[in-house]
């Protein structure tokens, strides 16, 4: 992990309306996936890629996020006194992942606005942005490859994934350009991006999936970006400008990730994440698989 990028920004100010009433009093990012909250997987991914400085952009009712990544001395003392070493280590692991900071988004003006709120913390450094809804297999490796591509090309880099044609209207879609060579995953220049296009207007089925490595110039672009789809400041609109002016901004490269991604902001994908990750869990995986087979084989 010999790279100079150390900062990650995680927007986490959404209301989680798709999970109401469960998210009435609990942030959607704190909903558990097997034995830890969804947001912890994302922070672990950032830390695994060497991003030791994490800024979460939060909103009202997000205090449980801060509590989760904070130390709880009383709980740790109880666990230690009772000899629950393994549980104690799991509790402490969340605290030790990274140096985590917080800033409030304030007005809910969209993803682009949330990223813009990180400007003072990030300064003039290239940084990674990770959306808290997505859990990605090999996520740290994907980020490391995106950072490597940034360092070799000077471009901002986004992760994309092929989606069915009837789902393109739910994503920011890339218009692909020339391909790069010698990359772990297929990578290509993004000539343009379209936010949630109709199926007949989509230039491809390559959809942005919530992992970005962004040059600091994105902030100056976001500052003048007008509200777009949904009346919000869209990050996609800023990426369009970066892509169309490679001489000034370095352009945008899209890495086509072909692994497993769980959109935990979607009920069905959230349930799939719990089942698949439970099957891989070293403590309960084999017993859970046996139960599934016994329960659904007949």
Automatic annotation (TrEMBL):
What Gene Ontology molecular-function terms does this entry list? Answer: UTP:glucose-1-phosphate uridylyltransferase activity
The Nucleotidyl transferase domain is annotated at 7-276
Pfam family example for this protein? NTP_transferase
Q: Which CDD domains match?
A: UGPase_prokaryotic
**Protein EC:** 2.7.7.9
Catalysed transformations (reactions): alpha-D-glucose 1-phosphate + UTP + H(+) = UDP-alpha-D-glucose + diphosphate
Q: Which UniProt keywords apply?
A: Nucleotidyltransferase, Transferase
Q: Which SUPFAM superfamilies match?
A: Nucleotide-diphospho-sugar transferases
Q: Which PANTHER family match?
A: UTP--GLUCOSE-1-PHOSPHATE URIDYLYLTRANSFERASE
Q: State the family it belongs to.
A: Belongs to the UDPGP type 2 family.
Q: What is this protein called?
A: UTP--glucose-1-phosphate uridylyltransferase
Q: Which organism is it from?
A: Citricoccus muralis
